[in-house]
Design brief:
Radius of gyration: 50 Å
Largest sheet: 6 strands, mixed
Distance between the termini: 124 Å
Order of helices and strands: HEHHEHHEHEHEEHHHH
Structural class: alpha/beta
Strand order of the largest sheet: 3-2-1-4-5-6
Shape: elongated
Length: about 270
């Protein structure tokens, strides 16, 4: 259901952008459309504004009402439905037939009518003139997709917008003459880019940053390293002395005990 409303919205935006259709939508209703609506139990006045998502003004012609009236009991229902809608005044004084009358009314560009009909002949004649059509199918009101002719017209319109008009081209040519700009781009000589040398700043040697006391940062680091090295050497020396004294003590005790054992044996 949502996809049906989205489709209708997309079609209406197409007609709005290219042909100027906007709310309130003027819908010309045919007797055949009313007959199908009664068969499918569709309330046109209630459902159309919801489907088109905007204000709708339902209209018909005297010829359409007259045709239903002449149909007698077969078209009594459509006749009663059409009688509720506002009447669009026909330019002709005599009965001309519903299809011809509705076609003539719809072709007036100033009005921007949407035609609701089940008559295929009438619909086919209106497709050529970029008029939106409503029909009932599968118990639902549906807005017909734009015809190939309408799409082609929209494409031509967009291309015309993108292209420059004769007046605009004339003004551009006049400005070029005043500013002495050559018409062809090939006439403009392009300046050759000279080969640039290396960046002098990148060639400079990195300067050592000094602190507040005038000592460079690199110098401070080297002093720290030397001090650490000295400390390590000192620790190693102390450790080696300790080991030496331990060995001496061991040797002394060994010699002492050896002498004792030797005296006992004798």
């Amino acid at each position: 259901m949502k996809s049906r409303y989205k489709k209708a919205k997309r079609i209406l935006t197409f007609y709005y952008n290219n042909f100027g259709f906007k709310p309130p939508y003027l819908v010309l209703v045919c007797g055949t459309f009313c007959k199908q609506a009664l068969m499918d139990k569709i309330n046109i006045a209630e459902q159309l504004p919801k489907y088109l998502n905007g204000e709708v003004k339902l209209l018909t012609t005297k010829c359409a009402i007259k045709e239903c009236e002449l149909g007698g009991s077969l078209l009594y229902g459509p006749f009663k439905v059409l009688s509720q809608f506002d009447i669009y005044e026909c330019p002709h004084s005599w009965f001309k037939g519903s299809a011809k009358c509705l076609r003539r009314a719809a072709l007036k560009q100033k009005n921007h009518f949407i035609v609701a009909t089940q008559d295929e002949e009438l619909a086919e004649s209106l497709r050529e003139h970029n008029i939106p059509l409503l029909h009932i199918s599968h118990n639902c009101i549906n807005l017909e997709a734009p015809s190939d002719n309408s799409k082609k017209f929209a494409e031509e319109k967009t291309t015309k917008k993108l292209l420059l008009s004769q007046k605009q081209e004339a003004t551009i040519a006049k400005l070029k003459e005043e500013l002495h700009i050559p018409e062809n781009d090939s006439d403009i000589k392009k300046k050759k880019k000279k080969r640039k040398g290396p960046n002098p700043l990148s060639c400079k040697k990195p300067q050592k940053k000094t602190d507040i006391h005038g000592v460079s940062k690199g110098g401070v680091e080297s002093i720290k390293k030397r001090m650490e090295k000295k400390e390590k050497n000192y620790i190693c020396l102390v450790m080696s002395k300790k080991r030496f004294y331990k060995l001496l003590i061991k040797v002394f005790f060994l010699r002492f005990f050896w002498s004792l054992f030797s005296t006992c044996d004798v």
